[in-house]
Amino acid sequence: MLVNLLVFNLVRHVTDLQVVRASVIATVVAIVFNYVGFRYFAYRDRDKSGRTRELVLFLLFSAVGLVIENGVLYVATYGFDWNSPLQNNIFKFVGIGVATLFRFWSYRTWVFRALPPGEAVADAEAAPERERDERSRAGQRVP
């Protein structure tokens, strides 16, 4: 959310782009940050097989979130003529909130799926051996 709002306001102040176009740029930048954050931090323990499928679903659900988020801003700006900088930020924030609810559900349900219980246990038990093999291949001393 912070990246999204910062980029949105930066683009609005530095360029002459219309509000929704600036918002779309900010949302795309935030989507890139979100993928990195989710894959390598929040859901790093989730199933890592099928990265192509994961990325396609992530981008699909992110695009739906982009439409939701910027649709709220579009309606407020062009439908109700609420177009001051404060109003733009308020409705950008509201749009982010609504889209975040959708994205959270879809990412957790469809994109970053949990490993089945049996696989999760087997994966955890195999982790030390995998680490030892990786160190051995890298030429590091293996205890």
Automatic annotation (TrEMBL):
Region annotation (Disordered) ranges: 121-143
Segments of skewed composition (Basic and acidic residues): 127-137
TM region positions: 20-43, 55-77, 89-106
Main location: membrane
Domain GtrA/DPMS transmembrane intervals: 2-112
Keyword GTP-binding recorded: no
Subcellular location(s) per record: Membrane
Bilayer topology annotation: Multi-pass membrane protein
Keywords: Membrane, Transmembrane, Transmembrane helix
Protein name: GtrA/DPMS transmembrane domain-containing protein
Organism expressing this protein natively: Streptomyces venetus
